[in-house]
Write a structure and sequence with these properties.
The protein is of the alpha/beta class and about 270 residues long. It contains six helices and twelve strands. Helix 5 runs parallel beside helix 6. The protein is globular and about 45 Å long.
């Protein structure tokens, strides 16, 4: 059994020490193989906040990472930095690649930079990015779980969140589904959710799951939902394709993350591509 930990929107600068301690405890207990950090690493893209984020991720002792930026990871008030070096501090902390790819025998994860320096909050995916992901998906091995990671969501559960939906989401979802993606992971709106996109988008050629994570560590929780992370468990290559998604919420009473939802994900034909 292989395990991926998805954390999103920790917003270092607003991260809560008790929740940080509880998440580190969860990581020690579950020992995930891969960490996916789907953006909004910091609150204001300060060097000190990125340094704190890097130190925390190091403390989790997870061997392999994939990290993408969120809109909060671009300087907001320093216009020169925003226009000319928007990702310099993120690169210093987490490395130069803004659209990383992580491949293991059981997993193929593709990061997409959906933030734009000229946008304050909203994200978009370009045609060139869609095609890059398609090409990368087509390089996947038949036994690998195929995940695309974005920051802004490709699907939202509530009408009031439609304005936060990723610009260009529909052609992206159709192309990635056709190319064999199993899951699109995101964050941004601080609301965890799970949706089979083939039930929401007419004509989608194969099942594609949208997995949204809440805010992992920040005090900026929303709609009464506590801090939340996702654990994804998957059989390795050569075994029957199977995944289980668990949502773990921080419980103030116990001071721990606890599993509050568990869902089995039926996967499409991973022999495609």
């Amino acid at each position: 059994m292989n395990t991926l930990l998805q954390i999103s929107d920790p917003h270092f600068g607003t991260a809560q020490p008790a929740v940080m301690q509880a998440l580190a405890q969860l990581a020690r207990a579950k020992r995930p193989d891969v960490l996916v950090l789907s953006g909004d690493i910091t609150q204001r893209a300060l060097a000190s906040q990125f340094a704190q984020a890097r130190a925390f991720c190091d403390s989790l002792a997870i061997a392999q990472w994939l990290v993408i930026p969120g809109n909060h990871d671009i300087p907001l008030f320093n216009l020169y930095q925003r226009l000319f070096t928007p990702y310099a501090r993120l690169r210093q902390a987490f490395g130069p690649v803004l659209e990383p790819v992580l491949s293991t025998p059981w997993l193929h994860v593709i990061g997409v930079k959906t933030t734009r320096r000229w946008r304050h909050k909203n994200g978009e995916v370009s045609g060139a990015q869609v095609e890059r992901v398609v090409a990368e998906l087509q390089r996947s091995e038949p036994g690998q779980l195929r995940i695309v990671v974005v920051h802004q969501p490709v699907h939202v559960m509530h009408a009031e969140d439609q304005h936060d939906r990723l610009r260009g989401w529909e052609p992206a979802v159709r192309a990635w589904s056709r190319a064999g993606a199993d899951i699109v992971m995101g964050g941004h709106i601080h609301l965890p959710s799970l949706c089979d996109l083939s039930t929401r988008l007419a004509g989608l050629e194969r099942r594609l799951w949208c997995v949204q994570a809440g805010t992992a560590l920040s005090s900026r929780v929303r709609a009464g939902i506590p801090n939340s992370v996702n654990l994804l468990h998957c059989h390795g290559p050569g075994e029957t394709p199977w995944c289980r998604l668990e949502r773990w919420d921080f419980q103030a009473a116990s001071g721990c993350f606890e599993c509050v939802e568990s869902s089995e994900l039926t996967l499409g034909n991973r022999g495609m591509g």
